[in-house]
Amino acid sequence: MNLIPFCSDKDDAREYFHIPFNLGGCTFATNGSVTLRVKLDPKYLPFKGTSEFSRNELPTKLLDFFKNIENFDFKVLPRLAKLNTKECAGCDGVGLKIKEDCEECEGEGDLIFSNSYNQYEVECQSCLGKGKKKIEAPCITCHVCDGDKQVIDHENNFHRLPEGDVSAVILHSLNKLAGFRYAHKEGLMYVFKFNGGYGLFMGINGE
Description:
The chain has helices spanning 52-56, 58-65, 168-174; strands at 21-23, 26-30, 34-39, 85-87, 99-101, 110-114, 119-123, 132-134, 150-152, 158-161, 164-167, 181-186, 189-194, 197-202, 205-206.
């Protein structure tokens, strides 16, 4: 099973979440909102935190979250609605790359000048402070929406479960796991099982 999609992005300061790790005889993958636990995969290294909390407290908390997880009464997820989308801001809904970084300000939108007395910041006149310039004859597929013209609206995609609201984006992702079943643990925390392991995810608000 490919666990990388469930790890955090490289811009996440928690480097220990960038790749799966081994802990307590199992392998984990997490982005902070969703965590998966599967059978030990020896190709991954033992968990190694980078701060006092991540070294001393986080491993214990993580193992506690999964304690007796197999005893929950898991149930099938209610039917999910189609995800809401919005016009891609990267291409204004065209599907092609129509903007590129301004060469003069390098996408910053302003320019900084300094001398021995002062430092001045002025609006870039080449792009009028936008940091982008229009491509006159676009022909390259937009890398943001992959040419679909629409992107998932992460701010307006919620699914109402009996226990509270949960990100529909998360549920759509998890529901693709074979044998996915979920249960409410406590507060905003939910647990789930799938063919090959268990996991947990966080809700948005509760009843």
